[in-house]
Specification:
The structure is a homodimer of 317-residue chains.
Chain A: H1 18-22, E1 30-34, H2 38-49, E2 53-56, H3 63-71, E3 75-76, H4 80-86, E4 89-92, H5 99-113, E5 118-121, H6 127-139, E6 143-151, E7 160-165, H7 170-173, E8 180-184, H8 191-219, H9 223-233, H10 237-244, H11 252-268, H12 274-291, H13 301-315
C-alpha cells in the first residue's frame, strides 16, 4: 500500500461481494441499536426525534438498560432474530471487549434473518479489530461500516461526531440525528476506528498519565510541593485535574478495554504497546479501588488519590 | 513508616555517622561541579556570579564541556583527587544512568582526598537510586544531600528551582546563586528525587504521550481529521504540540534514562512500570531516528512525525 501519510496503512477491505451488496442499498428507516447504554440511548433518541424507528432487543438486559431504551423512545423486539428482520441498519455500541462477540452472535443470524443488513460498528476498537469484525459480518453476507464516535451523547449541539469509513457508508451518511454530526472518512475500513483510537489516546491517555503522576506524588508525600510547582509552571493544570479525576472512578472499568485496543493499534504500526497497557493497568487499579466500594458520586480528587494510595499500600509487598 | 501522605514512603536514612559528620559543617566556599553540561555550567555560572569558587575537572571531557566550563568561569583541576581535596561541596549533575557510577568513582577517593565532602546528587533519579547512592557516599564517610532540579538553567529569574532533602541540607540551603531558588523539602533522603520524578512524569510523560498519538495518527493517515477534532475540542493543543515536538529529537536521548527512573519510582509504590517503560521506548525510537541523521536544528512537527513514520515503516515487520 501507499506510504507517506495520505493512505492509511490498512490491509485490503475484506470480501463483501460488493457488486451484490451495492444494489441492496436502501434509505434507512429502521435502526437497531445494540445496546442502549448512555451513548447508544443518546444516539437512538436523537434518531427517534428525527422520525426514524429505533428498535432494540431488551431480552436479557439490565433494568437500567431497558429503562434507558424506553425513555429514549425505542421499540422493543422479543428476540434478536426479530430485531434483525425489522432493521435496515444496526449500530453496535458496546464495550470494546464485547464488540467481537456481539458481531459473532449477530453474524450467526444474518443469513436467515436479514442478509441486506447494514452493520455499523461504532465501538472504540483498533483498526485490526474492526477489520476482523468486517470479515465476520462480510462473511455472513451483510455489509459493514467502520464507525468511531467522538464526544459525548448528543444532549446538545456540537457534542457528538460520528465518523464513518468503508465502501458502504453512503446510506449512513444520509441519516439525520438531532445534534449529531455524521462525517465521512473515506472508503477504507479501519480509518474511522483509527481516528477514534488516536483521539482517545490523547484524552484518556492524559488522564491515566495524570493519575500515574498524582498517585506517585501522593504515595511519596510530595503532592503539596508538586502542586506549588504547577502553580507557577502550569497554572491551569491542577484545576483541570480537579475537574477530571473525580469522573474517573465510575468510568475506569469501561476504559480498560479501550486502552488495550489503543495498545493494539500502536503495536500494529510498530510502536511499543507498553504505554497503553500501562494505562489499562491504571484503570484496572482505579476500578478495583472504587468498584468494590460501591461509590455512586464522583469523589473529590484528594479522596480519589488517598483511596488509591491506601489500596496500593495494602496490596503492595 | 507513617502512612497517609504526610511522611514519604522511604526507608530509613542510610548510616552516615551523623554525630561525627554534623560537626564538620562549614560554610561552603568552593563547589565542584560534575559535569558542566548545559544545566551544570548554568548553575555553576550563577554560583560564580555570587562569588563562590566553582571548580571542575575537565580531564577526559569533551571540548564542548571544557568550553562551557571555561565560559562559566570554572577553575579547572588536573584530576579528580585534586578536585575533591579543594571542594567543600560537590554537585553531581549528570545523565541519570551515570549517577551511580559517578558516585562509585568519587566514593573511592573520598577517604584519602576529603572525608568532609558534602555530596549533592542533583540527578533525575528514583528515590530508590538516590538511597543507593546515599549508602555508597555515606559508606565512604561523606555526607549526602538528595537534590532535584526543576526548570531550565538559571538564565533569568524564575527558571530554576533546586529542591533539597536529607539530614544535611543546611549548608546548601545557605548558598546563593543568581536566579536560583534553593528550596527545602525536609530531612528525608528521597523526597527531592521523588518530587523531580513526579514533576518530570507529567512534563516529559505528556510529550511521550503526544508522540504516541501523533505518530499513530500519521501512520494510519488520520492526522488531518484528528487536528480538526482538536480545533473544536482542545483548541490550544496542536499549537502546544507544534512548539514542543521539534525540541524532542535533540533531547530524546537524554530522556531515556529519566523515563526508566520514573518507571522504577512508580514500581516502587506498587504501580505498573509499563507506562514509563513505554515512554522510554518512545524516546529511544526518536533518538534512533534523529541521532543517526545528525540533525542539528529542531525540525518542524510534521517532519518529525514523517521521519518517525518512515523509520517504523522500514523497521516494522
Amino acid at each position: 500500500m501507499a506510504r507517506g501519510g495520505q493512505s492509511p496503512r490498512f490491509h485490503s477491505t475484506p470480501h463483501t461481494h460488493k457488486s451484490n451488496l451495492r444494489c441492496r442499498a436502501v434509505t434507512i428507516k429502521t435502526i437497531a441499536i445494540i445496546s442502549p447504554g448512555d451513548m447508544g440511548s443518546g444516539i437512538g433518541k436523537a434518531l427517534v426525534q428525527e422520525g426514524y424507528q429505533v428498535i432494540t432487543c431488551s431480552e436479557g438486559r439490565s433494568p437500567l438498560t431497558k429503562e434507558l431504551a424506553q425513555k429514549a423512545g425505542f421499540q422493543d423486539t422479543p428476540n434478536l432474530a426479530t430485531l434483525l428482520i425489522q432493521a435496515d441498519c444496526l449500530f453496535s455500541i458496546v464495550p470494546p471487549e464485547s464488540a467481537l462477540s456481539v458481531a459473532q452472535n449477530i453474524a450467526g443470524h444474518i443469513q436467515s434473518a436479514n442478509p441486506g443488513l447494514l452493520y455499523v460498528d461504532c465501538n472504540a476498537i483498533a483498526p485490526q479489530t474492526t477489520l476482523k469484525i468486517a470479515e465476520i459480518i462480510g462473511g455472513a453476507g451483510a455489509r459493514y461500516v467502520d464507525c468511531g464516535i467522538i464526544g459525548s451523547p448528543p444532549e446538545r449541539r456540537g457534542l457528538t461526531r460520528i465518523y464513518l469509513s468503508g465502501p458502504d457508508t453512503s446510506e449512513v451518511l444520509e441519516l439525520h440525528g438531532q445534534n449529531i454530526d455524521f462525517r465521512n472518512l473515506g472508503d477504507q475500513i479501519g480509518t474511522a476506528s483509527a481516528l477514534k483510537m488516536c483521539y482517545a489516546s490523547q484524552t484518556k491517555g492524559t488522564t491515566a498519565l495524570w493519575l500515574h503522576s498524582l498517585v506517585t506524588a501522593q504515595s511519596l508525600g510530595v503532592l503539596d510541593p508538586l502542586r506549588k510547582e504547577w502553580t507557577s509552571s502550569n497554572p491551569t493544570l491542577w484545576g483541570r485535574m480537579e475537574d477530571n479525576i473525580p469522573t474517573v472512578p465510575h468510568r475506569a472499568g469501561r476504559w480498560i478495554g479501550e486502552m488495550k485496543e489503543i495498545a493494539l493499534t500502536m503495536e500494529g504500526i510498530g510502536l511499543t504497546n507498553d504505554a497503553f497497557e500501562g494505562a489499562a493497568t491504571m484503570y484496572e487499579l482505579v476500578d478495583a479501588v472504587f468498584h468494590q466500594k460501591g461509590y455512586s458520586e464522583g469523589p473529590p480528587i484528594l479522596e480519589v488519590l488517598s483511596k488509591i494510595e491506601h489500596h496500593l499500600h495494602d496490596h503492595h509487598e
